[in-house]
Amino acid sequence: MDNSSLCCTVIIEELSATGNIVAKTQHRNLTLTLGRDEFREMQLKIIFPKKESKYSVKEVLIHKKFVRDGKATIKLPDYKIQLLLSNCPPDKLLVFVKTLQTKLDCLKKTGFLTQRQKLFSGKQHEFDEISPLTLKDLQASHASKVATSTAITKTSSASSSSVTSGLNGTLNVRKRTYPANDNLSSQVQERNAKQQKLNAAHERLMGMTKINGVSPSKILANPVQLTAEQTRVLEVIMRGKNVFFTGSAGTGKSFLLKKILGSLPPNHTFATASTGVAACHIGGTTLHSFAGIGSGKAPLAQCVELASRQKVAQQWRACKHLVIDEISMVDGDLFDKLETVARIIRKSDQPFGGIQLILCGDFLQLPPVVGPGEKRRFCFQSEAWNKSIEVTMQLTDVKRQSDKRFIDILQHIRKGSCPEHVSAVLQETTSKCIQRDGVLATKLCTHKVDVEAINTSKLREINGDSRMFASSDTDEAYAKMLNTLCPVPQYLDLKIGAQVMLCKNLDVQRGLVNGARGVVIGYEADYPVIKFACKVTEVIKSVRWVFKIGGGNTIVRKQIPLKLAWALSIHKSQGMTLDCVEISLARVFESGQAYVALSRAKSLEGLRVVDFNRSCVRADASVLKFYDQLELKHRMLHNGIEDENEIFRPNPSIFSKK
Ligand SMILES: Nc1ncnc2c1ncn2[C@@H]1O[C@H](COP(=O)(O)OP(=O)(O)OP(=O)(O)O)[C@@H](O)[C@H]1O
Ligand SMILES: [Mg+2]
């Protein structure tokens, strides 16, 4: 389906003369198509299961405040109806309403034919799908808006007077031919002349960077283009396949996920990630919070019971497309449990109960977190993976960094190799000063304790009074346990100017998610006011964390969900892009940890490694084997099937299973 069509849920409301709703019908999966009739005027076609209706559009009112949520209202005053669209893929809806509005604006500029003129034309009925929106259309629409209403009136009267003049000959208007004896030809010619004038204006405007303060590329729905390999992944996903797409850090996996989310119906699509920070990047929630099975460590029966709670089960049943970013950190056992829970709750024998899986991540980055003595099992080693994933694809074009030398260094580190020349370059960065315009580098540390020490000393350096926020815990005796379990401290010291991070998903839609960065700018009613990097300013109030401690007992901490953030742990930085970063790698304890830290930097210029040692570069042997097998398949397919050289299904037998 192209940009002129849209498939979604539509409520059609019929309106009285005073605008009251007199009748209402709801239709799931209707197709709306924009087109032009035989007079090149705009038509909106609604395709019902057994019939179709066409509306000539001369006037339209579009309510598009909730386009990003896949909702909009299109009112056609001439027909006294309004269409309430919902569950539309947001990007498609945006293009659709923009096309409707813009093309109509352009058409208004040239004027409409009267009913009488149309009747006498003798033309056959036609419906051509409307051409895609172009920059030229946007500029013509803008020119039409700035024109005065008198100019529009003049255009209309000129159009109607020209009808009688007639013109012999044939005119080509947008590749369509009009016969010589067509008494509308003069009007068409006039329209054509106007179009040429607009084209000329467009040529002049090409040098212009902004229309009404907004750049033309921003007005066009698709400002940043997907690369060819990203487009191929999107195409396979739109064909409904269960896909895992992978690639090095910065190849645009999360970027592509956002595009995928814009192309799927929001009511049935759930965006999740293994960590809060990663979920924040794609505007989603954590996999745990979607699944509703707590930590997922409980026995299967208990997990099923948890997922059977009304609201959780509703989510599972509504889900048709499940997106999981940073899949490398999802534990294999958890993945197996989720697959079983999905089948039970959705009462379906298909893998994951028939949900389409869209997984992305890089297994050479951080692995699942395991407790002491626990065996690590990657997601790709699970039963559920082998039976669900149909297609694996790789992105190879690194977008985060542009310096080839740096990309090459990072590729070595990713595979756990650190030859002399790589080590030398990273050691050289130690002596650099990477402060830029007073903006301090974000410090990435391997351990949480180092993060805390840096943050405390930075806070001390700020002049001004500090305010201390004490948590309210169930019992003082559990404070120590709560300090380990809870992401926020028992005592939180803040000053105006302090760099902070949000530790709870407060409002995912507005970017107030676990990991969101901000600065304290004041206080209101004894609560800190935070200006977040996502451009939201919010008063942050206390929230509760509840932990089960065995024997059916729970402990609770109530605290402001903030912590100091001059320094970050490498685990929290996964998925981020940082301009200016200072890294300490002396105490790396995970495979992939050094790679995650180093690959956050956009350039070597913005990177300082404080204490580089080659032993910190590690890659997990089973993951390397997994990728070697993928490479092998890739090469085999490349030799055989040229078009599908990036699509392959890994051989499950190569992976060790528990
Ligand atoms: N097609 C593209 N055009 C322009 N910029 C892009 C494109 N794809 C990705 N980028 C940019 O590249 C950077 C890295 O992208 P992204 O964070 O999605 O990578 P990633 O593969 O998810 O990395 P990581 O594995 O570290 O999470 C981002 O700044 C993103 O905006
Ligand atoms: Mg990412």
Automatic annotation (TrEMBL):
A single Pfam family it belongs to is: Pif1_2B_dom
Cite the entry's keywords alphabetically. Answer: ATP-binding, DNA damage, DNA recombination, DNA repair, DNA-binding, Helicase, Hydrolase, Isomerase, Mitochondrion, Nucleotide-binding, Nucleus
The residues that make up the annotated DNA-binding region are 593-612
- Specify which residues bind ATP according to the UniProt entry for this protein: 247-254
Location (main, coarse): nucleus
Q: What class of enzyme is it?
A: isomerase
Cytoplasm is among the record's keywords: no
Q: A GO BP term, please?
A: telomere maintenance
Any idea which GO molecular function terms this record carries?
5'-3' DNA helicase activity; ATP binding; DNA binding; hydrolase activity
Q: Which InterPro entries match?
A: AAA+_ATPase (IPR003593), DNA_helicase_pif1-like_DEAD (IPR010285), P-loop_NTPase (IPR027417), Pif1-like_2B_dom (IPR049163), PIF1/LRR1_PH (IPR057437), PIF1_helicase (IPR051055), PIF1_RRM3_pfh1 (IPR048293)
Q: Does the keyword Protein transport apply?
A: no
Q: Which reaction does it catalyse?
A: ATP + H2O = ADP + phosphate + H(+)
SUPFAM superfamilies found in the cross-reference section: P-loop containing nucleoside triphosphate hydrolases
Q: Which family does it belong to?
A: Belongs to the helicase family. PIF1 subfamily.
Q: Quaternary structure?
A: Monomer. Interacts with telomerase.
Alphabetical list of HAMAP family matching this protein: PIF1 (MF_03176)
Identify this protein by name: ATP-dependent DNA helicase PIF1
**Lineage summary:** Eukaryota, Metazoa, Spiralia, Lophotrochozoa, Mollusca
